What we know:
Helix content: 40-55%
Strand order of the largest sheet: 2-1-7-8
Number of strands: 13
CATH architecture of the largest domain: 3-Layer(aba) Sandwich
CATH superfamily of the largest domain: HUPs
CATH topology of the largest domain: Rossmann fold
Structural class: alpha/beta
Amino acid sequence: MYVCGPTVYGDPHLGHARAAVTFDVLYRYLRYLGYRVRYVRNITDVGHLEGDADEGEDKILKKARLEKVEPIEVAQRYTALYHRAMDALNVLRPSIEPTATGHIPQQIQMIERILAAGYAYVVNGSVYLDVEKYRRDFAYGVLSGRNIEELLAGTRELEGQSEKKNPWDFALWKRAEPTHLMQWDSPWGRGYPGWHIECSAMSTHYLGVPFDIHGGGIDLIFPHHEAEIAQAHACFGEAAHHQARFWVHNNLVTIEGQKMSKSLGNFITVEEVFTGHHPKLTRGYPPMALRFLILQAHYRSTLDFSEEALAAAYKAYLRLISAYQRLSQLVSHPYSTYSVQAWRERVFSALNDDLNTAAALALFFEQIEDIIRLYRNEIHLSGEDLETLRNTWKEVLFDILGLRPIEAVQREKWDRLVDFLVRLRRQARSEKNYMLADILRNELRAVGVKLLDFPDETLWELSE
């Protein structure tokens, strides 16, 4: 499995978080099902131009110029920040995390093969893929459905475009000016790779062709992934089979219904979510609140971010954690009064249905009321069914969806204290000391404990 990773020129943002969590769940689930998965996620540290095409300034170089540091310093700094943010979100590290600058020979070798096959040409030290010639032998636009006429209609005059045979041709290698800070020797002179060639070179280097799964954000379908497919076919011929057998794309994140953009003032980084240091946030939220929010939407649907949605996600996450804690306290009975296996099958059916994490989570919320009824001995489970229920909660919530339970030792101490205060409040109510009972209820609510009063007992669960 190959996933297009971040271009490391800025703080990781909500878009990075969504992509990382999406493919982390896919990685976890494939391993849970027993597959041996080689997960390759690249780091783009050269070649990604501002315009996502063949014009503009390299994003890493632009950041280096603004911060007055070396490009490698920019790449290392923001790679470290990306890792820190993803670790907080409990995103597993990939099997291999190659960088574009660490694989220049592989990119040059691939370009040489494409030239030898006749699908590219050299102009003034730059190498371009000849899309018109490529189209004589292979389909172009298989992911996006775009055709050459649409590309021509949407193409504007760009600096340096006149050296191309056709405006829709794209760069495999760019000639570098003497002052360019990142450049390498090549058969065509000093230069640097195009953005698209790096992913084709690294993915096929580690996974061969075709490999099983290629992932990335939906915004990468065109031009990046279309270009990758073209490069793979141009290099390996029909054997490339569109480079990957399956292409998986997560959708975008919007902010209160708007596209996330620095110009609109709604660009939010992962760290800002954690600290609350953003105009659209009144407080910080823990990493699992953000992860849970991402999981509540199907990966192919747009995820609309707002503080209201984030707070609701955190509340829902805490409610599930409380139910899981209560589940661990249940005792078994000689027989069951309802089927756990049928519910478990529905959960995995949801995950098998295009990784529908939203539908799977909804089934866990259906279980919360049953867990309370089990706790109150209103319904019963045999030892085998109770073990199945506990295992399903652990396997899906923590092993597959990657949520984190509250740390066990701290939670045990917290539970004992809350249990004592809940018993004290119940005693106050029985003694008709309603003032003290209300004070205790309000104080518990203030620290995120929700009370569930029944005629014969009071239960509690975590809330905001």
